[in-house]
């Protein structure tokens, strides 16, 4: 396996190029090539990330300062979910935070204490000082904090096109990845069923040993050439369409340090603030809302759309390939599959899969069978658990104001694994042991913030007086730390401006 090719650029392709380029940077026997169409623009919707991306970018040797400056980056500390619960019960514009800082990290788990005594305070506010920092529009770190380190947990919002360009520059200049601009017309198959070569419009026939499909929804290699079936998940996840738009902002507008996800009668709206614009997407089920209704509701969200912004519609084919590795081909990114971008799952799954592939890349064709089984097993498990977590947002909501929310509660739309977990958590709050696999993309912390942000009713046994006393003290300590951090941390835009002017301290 000496000649590796990645078909497709964008975030997925260039993430893969960096992972593999780093892996084989000092191995002259192996070449990594990326073929990118000069005519096909990337989808460019994925502008949110999760905290693991910090470790990835640092491992690539990319300066956080350069990244922030080059990619219109802002910090993301949370997803703020607005109106995901019944307005009559929880108030108009009810909200909760899915924070990136671990809950209860200064002592014992506060979840049982909150379930018994926390009615007057939001779950995230009791268990983490980050809730208050987000609400006060604070940054997760100071200008003197070293690159990729933070006082609070964080990820990023970014310009996806500029991010791909930064990754391309790093892969080519630092890892020796070869870059070819060409349109791949089709794949030529070997008699064994593996891919033998690519037929391109500009460069003719190009043969490689191993092929990585990052061709997006088209899935040119794994889907079209190798005929790996697509498994739809539209029965579990009902949204299938999105209207997207970029909304210009003013230089001094406040930048929320979180993604805003606002639920509506047939889906939800993402709102991501970069330094000079907002990326907004109206996600909906076309079975529950017409395109015209969706357009009107997005107009209303944008206060009538006074500047006449044009919306781009993106159809969502929800699901994933039956296999992610077949013969000498692996798919990544949208070529693997697609889920609504509710928890920044696309970049997360791509980064995870590309790193996992690079870690155990086959040295010869004889090794591919065993590694293929391993990769497909792990990625299949990861996709299923991500689907569980996305579905959780809908099925535990107490909204009943439309058929969309009622349909999401139907038993036949809820995966069996999620049903079993929810049944357990009716009587016990989640424990780390409930998430036994390290391939749970979302695990203990994530479920706690979502379950109890949405007031899931876990009926626990009585608490010991010893635990109650310690938990009360722990909660007070978190409250005190919140006040201290709000005094210490700079405002979000303030820090972004300082980074652009001075830069962060290099590691």
Automatic annotation (TrEMBL):
Name assigned to this protein: Tryptophan 7-halogenase
InterPro entries: FAD/NAD-bd_sf (IPR036188), Flavin-dep_Halogenase_NPB (IPR050816), Flavin_halogenase (IPR006905), Trp_halogen (IPR033856)
Superkingdom of the organism of origin: Bacteria
Organism this protein belongs to: Colwellia asteriadis
């Amino acid at each position: 396996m000496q000649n590796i090719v990645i078909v497709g650029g964008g975030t997925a392709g260039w993430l893969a190029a960096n992972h593999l380029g780093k892996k084989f940077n000092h191995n002259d026997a192996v070449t990594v090539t990326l073929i990118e169409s000069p005519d096909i623009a990337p989808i460019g919707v994925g502008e949110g990330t999760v905290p693991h991306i910090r470790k990835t970018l640092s491992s690539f040797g990319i300066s956080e300062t350069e990244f922030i400056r080059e990619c219109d980056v802002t910090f993301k500390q949370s997803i703020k979910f607005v109106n995901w619960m019944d307005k009559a019960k929880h108030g108009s514009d009810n909200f909760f935070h899915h924070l990136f800082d671990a809950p209860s990290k200064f002592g014992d788990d506060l979840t049982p204490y909150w379930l018994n005594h926390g009615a007057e305070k939001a779950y995230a506010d009791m268990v983490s000082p980050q809730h208050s920092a987000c609400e006060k529009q604070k940054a997760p770190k100071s200008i003197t904090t070293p690159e990729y380190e933070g006082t609070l947990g964080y990820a990023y919002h970014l310009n996806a096109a500029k991010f791909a360009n930064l990754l391309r520059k790093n892969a080519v200049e630092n890892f020796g990845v070869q870059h070819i601009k060409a349109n791949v017309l089709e794949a030529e198959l070997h008699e064994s069923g593996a891919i033998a070569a690519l037929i391109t419009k500009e460069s003719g026939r190009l043969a490689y040993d191993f092929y990585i499909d990052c061709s997006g929804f088209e899935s040119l290699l794994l889907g079209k050439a190798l005929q790996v079936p697509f498994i739809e998940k539209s029965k579990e996840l009902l949204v299938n369409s999105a209207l997207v738009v970029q909304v210009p902002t003013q230089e001094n507008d406040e930048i929320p340090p979180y993604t805003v996800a606002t639920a509506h009668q047939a889906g939800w709206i993402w709102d991501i603030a970069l330094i000079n614009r907002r990326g907004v997407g109206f996600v909906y089920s076309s079975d529950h809302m017409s395109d015209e209704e969706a357009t009107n509701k997005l107009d209303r969200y944008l206060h009538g759309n006074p500047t006449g912004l044009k919306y781009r519609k993106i159809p969502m084919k929800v699901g994933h390939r039956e296999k992610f590795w077949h013969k000498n081909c692996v798919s990544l990114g949208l070529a693997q599959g697609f889920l609504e971008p509710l928890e920044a799952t696309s970049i997360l799954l791509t980064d995870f899969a590309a790193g996992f592939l690079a870690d155990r890349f086959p040295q010869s064709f004889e090794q591919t069978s065993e590694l293929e089984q391993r990769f497909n097993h792990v990625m299949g498990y990861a996709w299923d658990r991500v689907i569980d977590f996305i579905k959780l947002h809908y099925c535990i909501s107490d909204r009943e104001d439309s058929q969309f929310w009622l349909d999401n509660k139907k038993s036949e739309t809820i995966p069996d694994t999620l049903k079993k977990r929810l049944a357990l958590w009716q009587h016990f709050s989640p424990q780390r042991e409930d998430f036994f696999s390290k391939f749970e993309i979302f695990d203990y912390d994530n479920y706690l913030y979502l379950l109890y942000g949405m007031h899931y009713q876990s009926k626990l046994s009585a608490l010991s007086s010893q635990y109650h006393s310690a938990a009360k003290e722990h909660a007070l300590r978190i409250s005190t730390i919140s006040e201290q951090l709000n005094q210490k941390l700079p405002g979000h835009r303030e820090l972004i401006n300082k980074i652009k002017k001075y830069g962060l301290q290099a590691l």
